């Protein structure tokens, strides 16, 4: 079950501080990288909820983000609906899509669950690629960002947009914590630990999975909407399975089932990508080697490794303190 | 309270339950005896819905529940513990009990509140922990408690759903004689209106706890009666090769 500890709070504060500092001081290129990290962080939080806390390893979260992006583009650019309403509508559509996928896939496990979600993702990709309304391979352009001029914010400014994404990431993180600490989240944890027993206790397991997948879909949809607003253009590539695979890599790289880890993973992945791609076009190879090292080390990602060492250190301290205390107690007794 | 009518189940050529008819009154404590392979656990699996019978029916509190899935039967008051511990290993004893209590109280699917923090849930957890002697272990993880305590928790999790009928599949399986005696007291101290159906190999427990005894052999009910009648049954002595003569 999800719990915060001192280390998690410390890393969260550090990440928030670093992001805020970057948002306030960076130039255009730095802000673009930051926004990319923030959007990816929202997507991987969505994935961590289902994969890390529900054992539902999904290969369709990229597609869900794509559904959100296309829904927003169609509602705002083509149907002429006001961007805030279109944004809410896109998140709702993605939530509904996620719920249906979760419900259909709820009876499968492990590799079968992964394959079923992959199939859903590829179906969405193919449909968007082929259907003329989505602009085919050319994608859709002219996507507007939210108009927050009423409260004095211009989201067309990169800095303001990065701060806006940071605020949304904070809200999404808070929502994820609330979900995992709710009755639904507790039951999800029970299902991951022992699905058969939860069913025997009277829980409608498929419904819990579908509900959580729907909520996760909403968050993925939000990431897609922000991605669309960020680059103001979308193409079917956003729905491709490689996006989902990349999100999974980020979650594993950061620390599955920790919520904080995927944030670390998102930052590490995007920074690595940009730094390495400046040096070599084969940057994927380096990321692959790092991922293999993380998996082989059996540490739960970068954050999981740090957390395990931190936990071991605390245990050693407690053991030392107990050992030091015992002779004194004996002396008092004597 | 719980009734089966001509329950029949085969796996290919193997007939595992043959026209099993049982009727448990409210508050009755019945022990099912039988050698290995007699069909006891298969019968349990059909009662809770984990297996579908080929023919026959299961009735709970007068309602035919044969077509209902596992979760719906559980919500109607049919709860079970397993022969092999089926717990939430990474969680604490308190969380194990809390998850079960949350399902019973309807807080398990709520999005706006923490089910384990609900007073209703906490009350059930405290009450069940007291009933099955788990109070000292509430904050320990399942992986940190002994096998015997896990067996208690196995029963506790089933009890935390506040069942009408509690099915226990060999609750003392694998525990030592001393702990087994503790289990007798534990079961005898459970509320008298709770209907219990227990699969057990421990004859001492069977005769200590049971109001009635049913014996299965090759999937068939070969004895159904009072414990004192069971003690004198020649047929049962043949089945068990006199294993309880000294009980």
From TrEMBL, chain A:
It is found in: Cell membrane. CDD domains: TM_PBP1_LivM_like. InterPro entries: ABC_transp_permease (IPR001851), LivM-like (IPR043428). Its main location: membrane. The chain crosses the membrane at residues 33-50, 57-75, 81-104, 111-129, 161-184, 205-227, 247-270, 282-306. Pfam families: BPD_transp_2. It comes from the Bacteria. It is a multi-pass membrane protein. Keywords: Cell membrane, Membrane, Transmembrane, Transmembrane helix. The keyword Cell inner membrane does not apply. This is Branched-chain amino acid ABC transporter permease. It comes from Albidovulum sediminicola.
UniProtKB/TrEMBL annotation, chain B:
It holds the Pfam family ABC_tran. Residues 2-243 form the ABC transporter domain. It comes from the Bacteria. Coiled coil: none annotated. InterPro entries: AAA+_ATPase, ABC_AA/LPS_Transport, ABC_transporter-like_ATP-bd, P-loop_NTPase. Keywords: ATP-binding, Nucleotide-binding, Transport. GO terms for molecular function: ATP binding. SUPFAM superfamilies: P-loop containing nucleoside triphosphate hydrolases. Signal peptide: none annotated. PANTHER family: ABC TRANSPORTER ATP-BINDING PROTEIN, CONSERVED COMPONENT OF ABC TRANSPORTER FOR NATURAL AMINO ACIDS-RELATED. This is ABC transporter ATP-binding protein. It comes from Albidovulum sediminicola. The lineage of its organism: Bacteria, Pseudomonadati, Pseudomonadota, Alphaproteobacteria, Rhodobacterales.
